[in-house]
Amino acid sequence: MLRLLIHRPALRRAWAILAGIAAGLGAPLSSAQDVTYRFSPVNQYDINLTAAYWNPIISYVSEKSGVKLALKIGRTSADTTSYVLAQEVEFVFSNHLFSPEREKLGWKVFGRRQMPPVHGQLVVPADSPITELEHLRGEEVAFPGPEALIGYKLPYAHLLARGLQVKVVFGGNQNAALAQLFASKVKAVGGNSQLIQGYSEREKKKFRVLWSSEPVYDLALMVSGKVPEKDVKAVAGAFFNMHKDPAGKDILHQAAAKVGLATDAVFIASDGSEYGSYRRFYQTAPASLR
Known about the structure:
- This protein is α/β, with parallel strands linked by helices.
- It is built from 10 helices and 11 strands.
- The chain has helices spanning 8-25, 47-65, 77-85, 100-103, 149-161, 174-182, 193-203, 229-241, 246-259, 276-284; strands spanning 36-41, 68-71, 91-94, 108-114, 120-125, 140-143, 167-170, 188-192, 207-212, 220-223, 266-269.
- Helix 2 packs across helix 8 (229-241).
- The protein starts with 7 loop residues before the first helix and ends in a 6-residue tail after the last helix.
């Protein structure tokens, strides 16, 4: 058996050389080959459907960019956002980071989905006896969760502005809130028009819209300031060129079909300027919604 003998002085010199190499490389390695970045999209659907939509997309982006991404989502949208605020993730698909306090955290918009504008809405089943917002006074109304800007903060702020007090129920995501509506546990639901339409397509349910907000842009692709620029560019390029590749286009088509999107959602570049309406909301929103 071959035995390798190293005298203590030589061993110390070897460790010194290794330490020097490590110092030369700098603190922690940030190459895409050494790191797996966590990607956290807001739970727009239940956890299984959210994973079914995003996993094929981030697998494709990882392969094409050479930058490893892994999905990290919580049980609810609020749980997922807590990971973001705790800096446990590096990439997000979200609109939960546009308040003045959270913009100080250093997240940067680099892209978005090219989709029709969305609206915050208050809806009831099409055959509901409720035909106007006044009928909701004192009733239970379900919302996706306390972090949902389009699905909760916009419609609830409108109810408060109208002086209509309702009993707020959080479903944890849009699907769960809508399921409570059709189980007759709540009288109405606040939500994102895109997700309500998708639910209608998947579940063959019809709605009456009691109120709809001004149009706003779909959620943003954002990156933490700690991710090296070369990795950001590689990931962004893979997202933006996905629909130009037949394999990527097919993944986007299948993903859209799974969640009931009316059109295939492709990813395009954004500098964040489209999200001015989100920022303006926080300037006038009730303190409890900021």
